[in-house]
Amino acid sequence: MRIVSLLPSATEIVCELGLGDRLVGVTHECDHPPFVAALPKVTRTLVPHDATSREIDRLVRERLATEKALYSLDLPTLERLAPDVIVTQALCDVCAVAESEVAAAACTLPGRPRVVNLEPTRLAEVFDCLRTVGAAAGVPERAEAAVASLRARVAAVERRTRGVAHPPRVVLLEWIDPPFCAGHWTPELVRLAGGVEVMGQEARPSRTVAWSGIVAADPDVLVVACCGFDVARTRRDLPILAGLPGFGGLACVRAGKVFLMDGNASFSRPGPRLVDGLEILAHALHPRIHPLPPGLTAAERVTGRDLGFE
């Protein structure tokens, strides 16, 4: 079986199921596990590599208004790879190749490959995606084993969280310029980790929020995990955040509880590494009860010096 993945989370799911040797093509964004970076790329992006956060937001809004995706298929490469299965998504209108374009392309390919569409909004639905891909690839038993392992890690966090008497009020930002509150599975992860997300809603899309609303909410903890960005890229936008009115007076800033996390690896992609994100977030919120598992990198605490306050 020859598998082409049209989104990074699907690539990670395929590899989690031990099917990495069946991957023949991936997106230009796929980077985990590391070996997939060497595979043929079947997508292209319209986003300049040096675009600012504000410019990326403008491009996204323009494409939404025209119902066009930010990414396009490389049809000649896709045809050459001759996949049996194409894994794609219909969750986000701009963050992957448009569903209609994938369906149209599949109809023109030899052998009419099966198109597997993933559309999770909650953690349980992410686990169901592993089962869906496992069934399509003929390895349902691997999917069940992988899901059981991931669920056991989530359950361990849940058990420890039950001892939290006063969960902190949390805002997790998925974007800085302009501010976006978290959506879909991320508020659920905050809850499981022992916090209360005060802006984002579980199983609902992330959305632009007025900065004044965040100031009014005055969270105990602020986590910045920008969609598609690693920590280093997110850190570049910290001056924008620090310059917003009232930022320095927030309870989380005064208490030194502003954290940076790798949104690209731990929150943006609805795949197995969401559980890594949960464990890292739980450790940041409650380090005394949630140990950081081996192999994971702790969230970075933002200092006054980082924000230009020292």
CATH superfamily label of the largest domain: Nitrogenase molybdenum iron protein domain
Q: Which regions contain 5 or more consecutive residues with pLDDT less than 50?
A: none
Radius of gyration (CA) equals: 20 Å
SSE ordering: EHEEHEHEHEHHEEHEEHEHHHEHHE
Total individual domains: 2
Q: What is the count of β-strands? A: 13
| Helical amount | 25-40%
Report the mean per-residue pLDDT as an integer. Answer: 92
How does CATH name the architecture of the largest domain? 3-Layer(aba) Sandwich
- CATH class descriptor name of the largest domain: Alpha Beta
Shape: globular
The largest sheet is:
7 strands, mixed
Distance between the termini: 57 Å
- Helix- and strand-based class? alpha/beta
Instruction: Classify the fold: give the CATH topology of the largest domain.
Output: Rossmann fold
Strand content: 5-15%
Briefly say what this structure is:
The chain is of the alpha/beta class. Helices cover 39% and strands 14% of the residues.
